[in-house]
Amino acid sequence: MSPLAPLHARLAIMSIAAVLGAPGFAQEPAPPGDGDKAVAEVTVLSFKDPFRTDYRGLQKARAAMTELRALAPQASLRFFIVNRSGSAYRGELKAIVSDGEASHTIPMASDASFELPAQIAGLGEAAEFMMNAKRKEIYLRPQVRSPGTSDSRLRLGDLRMECEIVWRMEYAEASFMARAALKFMDSPCNSAKFGMDFFARGRLSAVRISEHGNSKTLQLTHRAQAYYAPLHDKAWSNEALIELTPALAEGLPPEASLPGR
Questions:
Q1: Under DSSP, is residue 55 helix (H, G, I), strand (E, B) or coil?
Q2: Could you report the per-residue pLDDT of 100-115, keeping only the tens digit for each?
Q3: Cα–Cα distance for residue pair 220/81, rounded to 1 Å
Q4: β-strands 204-211, 214-217 pairing
Q5: Which secondary-structure segment (H or E) carries 181?
Q6: In the 8-state DSSP scheme, what is residue 184?
Q7: Using H for helix, E for strand and C for coil, what is the string for 122-160?
């Protein structure tokens, strides 16, 4: 199974899982010194069955921020490490990009997030992004945020951009035959046959999208810990606002059995 945010079918229910609700952009940590770099490399390379993914594939996904800039013209991108359940990862993480000969340490923030450098000099074509976390226990997910947004107030264009990044990440991880079959397929983010689960930091009582006086309640999924956003629906512009109401705001306990999908 891919260590990236998974792509599933919605008629069989096709959904792309991406996370939202991780803390806002963390302050950049100080660049690691040579000693920190050596420790990070040893920690990651000696870890049994580490999380790893193609570095070039991540860069191609990151390129969506430029190629599809109209979706989120002022947004920034960070990548988050989350548990397979969608919850925040709590362990101490070390990350490197390595081609087997040269390696580069990726500074990791305390909220298990990082910013992928645009270019890392001196790496070969086989470079991989690796971490000291078990491949089968975590996902790597993008978070796109525009100025003025928050964990509970989001732009639809930012979510559309996240979907495009996830799609590119999955495509890069697919087998040769799968990529050949998908080559002529339009992005699933533009199709009503696909849905995308956006995870929140906790249980939700409601999620609404609004624009120009119109509003609509969105479907909650995964026992009210996530929701579907109308990414394909052009009736909603990229500036449409999505507002999340936590369960606690309605007097409901976080673990209440709220209706999901």
A1: helix
A2: 888 889 999 988 899 9
A3: 23
A4: antiparallel
A5: helix 176-182
A6: T
A7: CCCCCCEEEEEEECCCEEEEEEEECCCCCCCEEEHHHHH
Cβ atoms of 257 and 166 within 8 Å: the answer is no
| pLDDT, position 261 | 32
CB 20 within 8 A of CB 145: no
- State pLDDT tens for residues 161-186: 999 999 888 888 777 777 777 766 77
Cα separation, 12 vs 33, in Å, equals 49
- Which amino acid belongs to residue 103? S
CB-based burial, 126-147: b 16+ in 10 Å, e otherwise = ebbbbbbbebeebbbbbbbbbe
Closest by alpha carbon to 61, among 49, 53, 51? 53
The answer to whether residues 189 and 160 touch, using CB atoms and an 8 Å cutoff, is yes
Cβ-contact 78, 161 below 8 angstroms = no
d(CA 37, CA 40): 5
**What residue type is assigned to position 10 of the chain?**
R
pLDDT tens for residues 226-244?
A: 999 999 999 999 999 999 9
Q: Work out whether strand 195-199 and strand 15-19 pair parallel, antiparallel, or are unpaired.
A: parallel
- Residues 6 or more apart whose Cβ sits within 8 Å of residue 135: 3, 49, 50, 51, 52
Q: Are 260 and 223 in contact (CB under 8 A)?
A: yes
Q: At what angle do helices 55-62 and 156-173 cross, to 10 degrees?
A: 150
Q: What is the b/e burial string over 196-209, where b = at least 16 CB atoms within 10 angstroms of the residue's CB?
A: bbbbbbebbbbbeb
Question: Left, alpha or beta for 222 (phi > 0: left; psi -120 to 50: alpha)?
Answer: left
State the pTM of this model. 0.77
